[in-house]
Design brief:
The complex is a heterodimer of chains A (433) and B (448). With 433 residues, chain A is mainly alpha-helical. Helix content of chain A is 69%, strand content 2%. Chain A has 22 helices and four strands. In chain A, the strands form two sheets. In chain A, strands 1-4 form a two-stranded antiparallel sheet. A two-stranded antiparallel sheet of chain A has the order 2-3. The radius of gyration of chain A is 34 Å and the shape is elongated. The termini of chain A are close together. The mean pLDDT of chain A is 88. The termini of chain B are far apart. Chain B has 19 helices and 17 strands. In chain B, helix 2 crosses helix 14 and helix 10 (242-257) packs antiparallel against helix 19. Chain B folds into two domains: 27-154 and 326-397, D-Maltodextrin-Binding Protein, domain 2; 158-324 and 404-447, Periplasmic binding protein-like II (D-Maltodextrin-Binding Protein, domain 2). Classes of the chains: A mainly alpha (433), B alpha/beta (448).
Chain lengths: 433, 448
């Protein structure tokens, strides 16, 4: 008994590892990202401490004295810098001349300090000029400190000794990286655009699912069931085409159909209508085609599942019902549909999740247009986190959007299981171990 | 017996040592260059580095060093994929050495530490950097440091199809005087709408083709905000001028209402847009100086100056005529050795020399980056470059370098598109934009 249990665990291990790596890990990472304000500007791998003009503006109200004290760049030729320069072991003439002719001089910008260094008789190279000017930098402005302590040490050198509370304020104002926050969810909850996108998604998923992925797929499966076998195979093969055609080409065919210079425009031109872009003409048009494009792909999957399920119904039931004089409709109603509950649950559940998460057909056809009319949640998450014209990638907000999708998916799955009474669909094994 | 092996190994060691010394002086350095938004006319954005590498290698040879530079070029034709690829590559520590991108990326990329200031590696007082227009150098600076070297300049004019302007009553002299009238504010965006309508009413162009704007998001739309009196940034803070933005949104909604611009214009296929503009299907449109190169080289518009007049973007209510320059800049990416970055910086410097930069400017119909470039024969002898430089560049604004500008832009565009297509009323779009700007940018933006 124990060995069979262990064997069971061993058998399930590969699947468990897969689930962990490709489902749980991404979901966990998404959840972690969602709790941050990560974006292009903050970077992913962490930040540094930098006294920028923006940081000084932020400090002006809380610590005006410090803010004005560190607001200007300052380069000073002093003993400390000269000693460091000697340590660099460059030409000795640099130190000698700087000490003799420029000791104590103060420059308000790096460029001006470098002009003096460049003019030294020994002619330092550009690289040396940069090395030397760094040694005389007596300000923290725009220097990137890799740790908070480095910044505080530099501030201390400049004569600013800060209390721990003040250090915290300065650290906050100068930190360039991401921080933990729940702000993303507040933005999602309050933005009218997000609400619109949510409604778009609900509309898109429910209409495509109801009309095509389930109802139309059932229709195809049942009609082909009553056809002669060879005709049925031809029909099923035709309906498989949208699924087996590469999606880019499939969507391109739709575009050829609907563009200004496409087939519909040419056809309507025969009746005197000016050409127009039927795909993007209005939100209604865009939705009409987006649902058709997705529905035609989705219908084929349901068709296959339902057809094979109908095939599995013993022929004797159909024969017996015919002897009893049942009509086609009665056969569908009393023989086929009751035995299709399990595949319908599967298709509904699977296709809901797949419609929620997939956006490639919409991205390729309307890109969410016109005017964000067909922007669905997953596409918006993609645009927010990874792909937009301004290059402002908001990883944190995008992850929060993705997380919402995960939660919605799980909740919907649970609801489906209840509606279809999953517990009655699986019978208990007759032999206990 | 013992001396010989010692001698042998000593000789061997000496030979090995000597050979490493030889190898050490022969350096192979790979410098990778990426560029965004680079079509077939923009090849010199990356090809310039082949020429620069050749010169730098020769300079090294004269100094007695053997330097061998391998330039890896990766041009991207669009922006979305380019920016995605670049930011993610940089986060994965696989950034190229040099990147040519829009100057507005400097803010966020500098904050994230993806780029290093170019002024840490080049002498700004040396030629040709010292010769570059100071306002362009200003545009590539952020937080008081020069982060990039301007790669090109451009401006974005309004274009008019001359035959249709004549057909609605303009004389040759009127058309000739149009740029000056626009500059003085005598010909405004209101006139653009009226003339577009006249062209359609006369049946010269089809409905929706009177005014034919850019078919996608772009910096161009900030020009209209400026035309209606808006400012993008003041003293380091972003500005959302509600009234000016409302007039901008309203203008595009009015264009659609008057039927001179298509409601579903945004998102139409780019190739179709170009073909239609080049063949006179559109009456008035706007674009960039580089459109000249594409219209003439790729779209087959041979007699450009006979068919097309160009002006600044006319003023609207409350603003002035303007244009926008969106210089690309060469930036140095972080994450490489000092040695490599220094070589990359030297290459950028050489690639910015007038004669080399003029190859890009003229081939792609961008504008030059320095006064001496305008004196290069190739540049001086080009009618488009000289006329566009003179007519447009003095009035050019640029988008601000601000780490938050991208967020502002995304929200501004989203709502412009929504009011354009009628998905939202203008008032609703403005209110939504305000709400979202407040919640995402907070104190970083002035709303008035």
């Amino acid at each position: 008994m124990r060995t069979s249990r262990t064997l069971g665990l061993v058998m399930i291990a590969p699947a468990a590892i897969m689930i962990f790596l490709f489902f749980l890990m991404p979901v966990m990472l998404t959840a972690i990202f969602a709790m941050t304000n990560m974006s292009t500007a903050t970077g992913i791998s962490g930040g540094a401490w930098q006294v920028t003009q923006g940081a000084i503006n932020r400090l002006k109200t809380d610590m005006p004295e410090l803010a004005t004290g560190i607001a200007e760049p300052r380069f000073v030729i002093d003993e400390e810098g000269l000693a460091a320069l000697e340590g660099l072991k460059l030409k000795a003439g640099f130190t000698t001349e700087l000490r003799a002719s420029h000791m104590g001089e103060v420059f308000p910008s790096r460029r001006e300090a470098e002009r003096v260094i460049k003019a030294l008789k020994d002619r330092p190279s550009t690289r040396e000029v940069k090395q030397i000017s760094d040694l005389f930098n007596r300000s923290v402005l725009n220097t990137r400190f890799e740790t908070r302590d480095d910044l505080m040490a530099s501030l201390k050198k400049l004569g600013f000794t800060l209390t721990p509370a003040e250090q915290e304020t300065v650290s906050k104002a100068t930190y360039t990286g991401w921080v933990w926050t729940a702000e993303n969810f507040r933005i999602l909850a309050n933005s009218p655009d997000m609400a619109q996108i949510f409604l778009n998604t609900a509309f898109y998923v429910s209409v495509t699912l109801l009309l095509f992925n389930v109802t139309y797929a059932l229709f195809l499966a049942i009609t082909t069931h009553y056809m002669p076998a060879s005709t049925a195979s031809v029909f099923r093969a035709i309906w498989l085409l949208p699924r087996i055609t590469p999606v880019v080409i499939y969507v391109l065919l739709w575009k050829w159909l609907t563009w200004d210079s496409g087939f519909i425009s040419m056809f309507m031109g025969q009746f005197g209508y000016p050409p127009k872009n039927y795909l993007l003409d209005s939100a209604y048009n865009a939705w009409f085609f987006v649902i058709l494009i997705n529905g035609f792909i989705g219908a084929s999957m349901g068709m296959l599942v339902f057809s094979s399920a109908i095939k599995a119904i013993p022929q004797t039931q159909f024969h017996a019902s015919e002897v009893d004089g049942a009509s086609r409709w009665q056969q569908v109603r009393h023989i086929i549909l009751p035995q299709l509950r399990w595949p319908i649950l599967f298709v509904t559940c699977y296709q809901t999740l797949s419609l929620l998460a997939s956006f490639n057909e919409i991205l390729l056809s309307t890109r969410g247009g016109p005017g964000k009319a067909t922007e669905v949640w997953s596409l918006a998450a993609f645009h927010t986190a990874l792909n937009n014209y301004t290059g402002n990638l908001e990883y944190g907000l995008g992850a929060a959007m993705a997380l919402v999708l995960v939660v919605v998916g799980i909740v919907l799955s649970l609801i489906y299981l209840r509606i279809f009474r999953y517990d009655t669909l699986i019978s208990k094994p007759l032999i206990e171990d | 017996m013992t001396v010989l092996p010692i001698l042998k190994s000593a000789t061997l060691a000496a030979v090995l040592f000597a050979s490493t010394a030889v190898f050490a002086s022969a350096k192979d350095v790979t410098i990778s260059v990426w560029s965004g938004g680079s079509g077939p006319n923009d090849n010199y954005r990356t090809d310039a580095f082949d020429i620069a590498a050749d010169i730098l290698e020769r300079e090294a040879a004269i100094r007695g060093e053997q330097l061998n530079i391998i330039v890896q070029k990766t041009p991207y034709s669009g922006w979305e994929d380019f920016k995605q690829a670049l930011t993610l590559a940089a986060e994965a520590k696989k950034a190229p050495n040099i990147v040519a991108t829009g100057h507005e990326d400097i803010g966020p990329w500098a904050q994230a530490g993806l780029i290093v200031p170019v002024e840490n590696f080049v002498d700004l007082d040396s030629w040709p950097i010292s010769d570059i227009y100071p306002n362009l150098m200003e545009i590539t600076s952020f937080n008081g440091a020069v982060y990039g070297i301007p790669q090109d300049a451009e401006s974005r004019p309004m274009f008019f199809w001359k035959p249709y302007m004549k057909a609605i009553g303009y004389t040759d002299a009127d058309i000739e005087a149009l740029p000056a009238k626009v500059e003085k504010g005598e010909y405004t965006l209101k006139n653009v709408l009226e003339d577009a309508k006249k062209m359609q009413d006369k049946g010269l162009v089809q409905a929706g083709y009177g005014f034919y704007p850019r078919n996608s998001n772009g910096p161009d739309y900030w020009q209209f905000y400026t035309s209606f009196g808006g400012v993008m940034e003041e003293e380091g803070k972003l500005v959302f001028d509600k009234a000016a933005m409302k007039r901008t949104y309203q203008y595009f909604a009015d264009l659609v209402k008057a039927g001179v611009t298509k409601k579903n214009h945004i998102g139409m296929p780019g190739d179709q847009w170009w073909k239609e503009v080049a063949t006179g299907k559109a009456g008035i449109w706007h674009g960039g100086t580089w459109h000249y190169a594409r219209l003439v080289n790729q779209e087959g518009l041979k007699n450009f100056f006979d068919n097309v007049q160009f002006t600044l973007i006319p003023a609207g209510e409350g603003g002035k005529a303007n244009t926008l320059t969106h210089p690309l800049a060469y930036l140095l990416m972080a994450g490489h050795t000092d040695e490599e970055t220094r070589i990359a910086a030297d290459l950028i410097k050489i690639a910015s020399e007038p004669r080399i930069n003029a190859l890009h400017a003229i081939k792609s119909a961008h504008l030059g980056i320095s006064p001496s470039e305008t004196k290069v024969d190739l540049y001086a002898g080009d009618r488009w470059a000289s006329e566009a430089t003179e007519r447009l560049l003095p009035h050019a604004n640029a988008m601000p370098n601000n780490a938050d500008f991208g967020k502002y832009w995304t929200i501004m565009w989203k709502n412009l598109e929504a009011s354009w297509t009628g998905a939202k009323t203008v008032d609703a779009a403005i209110n939504d934009a305000e709400t979202e700007l407040k919640s995402t940018l907070g104190a970083a933006i002035i709303i008035r």
